[in-house]
Write a structure and sequence with these properties.
heterodimer; A: mainly beta; seven-stranded mixed beta sheet; 54% strand; B: mainly beta; six-stranded mixed beta sheet; five-stranded antiparallel beta sheet; 11 strands
Chain lengths: 115, 113
């Protein structure tokens, strides 16, 4: 089991550019989560999917952020246009049948720097 | 007021010492209590999981929950340099299939050889 795979590991971009973060969850997991981690605010849930359907996107900061899950093995988080305050580590996580019965498995994150 | 409060540290202790990490919370609806460990430049990984008040032990690690005080703790006995990491508490509400997991901001721990 390769675990949750995220790409790229690092992304440096200029303000105003579009950024796309990618995630491959663990095979068989039907929940997928996108988190953002900063020193000040810790881990914040942005959005999560169940069986490829977005369930709760109340954590998405604003319309510049969008997430898709076209199939069970792939998800993207897009920021357009990017701003310096979006600089953070973005984590994707997956789990099987919800968190009561199954822990979150995190990827190693994408470190985003917007200059 | 944040729902979950955690002292960010950093906390440095000598090898072999007992470490105590703590979180407080304000929402009595939290039902499940977890500790995640995060090594530098890695994602968090689940360390301990409990749903009731009292203690749960796993090797050198003990998770303690006091629901009446809304206080949870993680104790590490005989601490090792490999325990150096950031420890995040995570609290879960599960309500008719809707789940909400709230993380503390994490405590950075360094074990000094």
């Amino acid at each position: 089991d390769a675990g949750v795979i995220q790409s790229p590991r690092h992304e440096v971009t200029e303000m105003g550019q579009e950024v796309t973060l990618r995630c491959k969850p663990i095979s068989g997991h039907d929940y997928l989560f996108w988190y953002r981690q900063t020193m000040m605010r810790g881990l914040e849930l942005l959005i999560y999917f169940n069986n490829n359907v977005p369930i709760d996107d109340s954590g998405m900061p604003e319309d510049r952020f969008s997430a898709k899950m076209p199939n069970a093995s792939f998800s993207t988080l897009k920021i357009q246009p990017s701003e310096p305050r979006d600089s953070a580590v973005y984590f994707c996580a997956s789990s099987f049948s919800g968190q009561m019965n199954s822990p979150l498995h995190f990827g190693n994150g994408t470190r985003l720097t917007v200059t | 007021q944040k729902e979950v409060e955690q002292d960010p540290g950093p906390l440095s202790v000598p090898e072999g010492a007992i470490v105590s990490l703590n979180c407080t919370y304000s929402n009595s609806a939290f039902q499940y209590f977890m500790w995640y460990r995060q090594y530098s430049r890695k994602g968090p990984e689940l360390l301990m999981y409990t749903y009731s008040s009292g203690n749960k032990e796993d090797g050198r690690f003990t998770a303690q929950v006091d629901k009446s005080s809304k206080y949870i703790s993680l104790f590490i006995r005989d601490s090792q340099p490999s325990d150096s990491a950031t420890y995040l508490c995570a609290l879960l509400i599960s309500n008719f299939g809707n789940e909400k997991l709230t993380f503390g901001t994490g405590t950075r721990l360094t074990i000094i050889p």
